[in-house]
Structures are given as structure tokens and as C-alpha cells.
Amino acid sequence: MKLARILITGGAGFVGSNLALRFRRHVPTCEVLALDNLKRRGSELNIRRLTAEGIQFQHGDVRCPEDLAELPKLDLLIDCSAEPSVQAGTRGSPLPVITNNLTGTVNCLEAARRTGAAFLFLSTSRVYPIKSLNEAPFRETATRFEWSDTGVGLSSAGVTEAFPLEGARSIYGATKLSGELLIQEYVANCGMRALINRCGVLAGPWQMGKVDQGVITLWVAHHFFGKPLSYIGFGGAGKQVRDILHVDDLFELLLRQLDRPDAWDGRVYNIGGGRQVSVSLLELTELCRKATGRQIDIKSVPETSAVDVRIYLSDCGKARRDFGWQPNHSPEQLVSDIFQWLRQNETALRPVFAG
Q1: What is the pLDDT of residue 211?
Q2: pLDDT by position in tens, the chain (length 355)
Q3: DSSP SS3 for 164
Q4: Residue in 352, 84, 334, 40 with CA at minimum distance from that of residue 222
């Protein structure tokens, strides 16, 4: 797919800013625009990084159609704008996360339709129902929970795109799944080109991690700054597992997807580190201790949130078959990259993580 101009919404966030910079360097003739409302603390630190590379930053909000009304012709719109926390909407009104994630996606779709852009949607593994995931057979080892080989769309290798979607998944997950369905309708009815990546846990430098989102970076940062943590849920032993994906591996996949314009028909891919690039919190703690040389206090909270899952692993077989792609960064490399970033930017990041 030829790229002359790209718009990335959520462009000052972790994923958006990293993709913007990588596209700018990989396709230097391409004009890259980044739009962000700077709501998340720390996102303002990315503006200098973006503008230094010649990326045009626009302060705007996808919830406001007028902020997307005067866009020039685009070749690609990447929607990275979202309220990314699965806890969003669990206390109080769910309307803010619905407005942010669903209304915002509709506004981005309309912008792509008007400007003739292909549409890349970063969805989430959280579209899969919580109860079904937690009821899947599993076993407990010394450091983690493991899925047993089981039924439709799930095995010890992870969740495939065929996993049944019936059941509750959180307000956050519902907004992202609703966005997926609308994208496929735009493809069918408006002739748009679109592709959907259901991402697991993305991680890497410049992620301003919090308890409910960005857990890998948060874990490294709290070890680096000497802040306490907690193992929350599933007995409080830290054995819950996630696959993790370095943002560089995500970018490599996007390049391969852009080389396959025939794939942009609204199809869905599960994207993550898979079983090979996964950690439990207990295992992550050990990696952080080795990287930082610091041991911190970690409390145990046995009670499990209603929206938490014991295990999530992405089976990326479909992406591997279609694009010849697989992750290249190990958990150890991810932790090391984040640690080096924290060390190089300690003064600027201390108020974000240790304030």
C-alpha cells in the first residue's frame, strides 16, 4: 500500500507515538500527522519527540467530529485513541468509556471515509468473554497458571479468532467489539479498506503504565523507583498470565500487513506474544529484580475483580500464516528496554511514576 500521508489518532500515546515515529523513519517521504487530546499523564512528553522528527502534532479529541472535519486526503488512518482500561465503566456511569471508545471510533471511521483512507483498528483481546476464558481447564505450576488443551478456539497455545463471543466481556471490551462490527459494516457498505488487530498486552519504552493498563512498564518502573506493588486476584500469588508484545514487533507486523492490500477487507487477527512471549506477575517480578537489582515490597490481595482473567494468550497462527510474522522480542528484552528508558529519562519520568 503506497503511503503519502498517515493520520494516527491517540498519536501522543504510547502506541500511537511509537508507530508515528517508526513510520516517519521507515517511510521518510510520508507525511505523518498525530492527533491527541493529551488526557493521559505523561503523553505531553511525547510531543517533543514527535515534532523533532517532523511529525505534525494536532491537539484534538476524537469525540469531537469538528476536530476531524478539516483533514486533508489520507492514505491510512490508524485508530490508537481509546480509554484502554478494562476497569473503565465498572464504577459509576459507563458513558465516558462508551463515548471515548465507540463514538470516537465512529468519528474516525467517518474521517477515513471522507478522506479515502484505509482504516487500521487496534482492538483488544478483551473482546473475548470473561466467564468463558476463566472456565477453560487449567493447571497450576510453581510460577504460573497454564491452559490445558481444550475446545473451540482455545488450547494451551492460546485463543484463536474462532473463540466464541457469546457472554459479557466488560464495558471496555464491548466498546471495542462494537467498533469492530461497525468497521466491517463500513467495509461492506461504503467500500472502505480496513483491518482489525486484536492486541494482547503491548509494552515498551514511553508507556506511562498504570495499575489497570500498561502493567509491564508499571512493574519495571515500580522496581526502578522503589515503589510497592500488589498481586491482586486469583489467590494473590501472582500466577495470572499474559502474553506481551513489544511495540517494535507490532510495527513489523503492520509493515507486512500494508504489503498485503488484499487482506484489508475487514478481517480480524489476534496479535500478541503468544505462549512463547508470556509472563506471570510472579515471573515478571523476577525479571524486574534482575534488571534493576532491586527487590520491593509486594502485597497479596486474594480477591479477584469481576473483569479480570486468569490467563490470556494470543494464538497468532492466522497472522503467521498470512504475513509470515512472529514476535522477536523476549520478555527479558522487553524488561531491559523499559529499564534503559527509565534510567535515561529518570528526571522527567519520576513525577509520572513516583510522584
Answers
A1: 66
A2: 889 999 999 999 999 999 999 999 999 999 999 999 998 778 888 999 999 999 999 999 999 999 999 999 999 999 999 887 888 878 889 999 999 999 999 999 999 999 999 999 999 999 999 999 999 999 999 999 999 988 889 999 999 999 999 999 999 999 999 999 999 999 999 999 999 999 999 999 999 877 667 899 999 999 999 999 999 999 999 999 999 999 999 999 999 999 999 999 999 999 999 999 999 999 999 999 999 999 999 999 999 999 999 999 999 999 999 999 999 999 999 999 999 999 999 999 999 887 6
A3: coil
A4: 352
pTM of the model: 0.95
Report the distance separating Cα 84 and Cα 215, nearest Å.
12
Residue 261 DSSP one-character state: G
Distances (CA, A) of 178 to 7, 102, 165, 307: 22, 7, 12, 18
C-alpha cell at 252: 513489523
Give pLDDT, residue 54: 95
> In a 3-state reduction of DSSP, which class is residue 220?
helix
User: C-alpha cell of 3?
Assistant: 503511503
Cα–Cα distance between 265 and 331 in angstroms, integer? 33
Contacts of 12 (CB under 8 A, 6+ apart): 34, 36, 38, 43, 44, 46, 47, 50, 57
158 beta partners: 155
Contact 118, 264 (CB under 8 A): yes
Q: Supply the DSSP symbol for 148.
A: P
| d(C-alpha 299, C-alpha 290), whole Å | 19
Parallel/antiparallel/unpaired status of strands 138-140 and 145-147: antiparallel
CB 60 within 8 A of CB 67: yes
- Whole-number pLDDT of residue 85: 83
CB 84 within 8 A of CB 125: no
**Which whole-number Å values give the CA distances from 253 to 35, 60, 197, 314, in the listed order?**
22, 28, 10, 15
Neighbour count for residue 302 (Cβ, 10 Å): 11
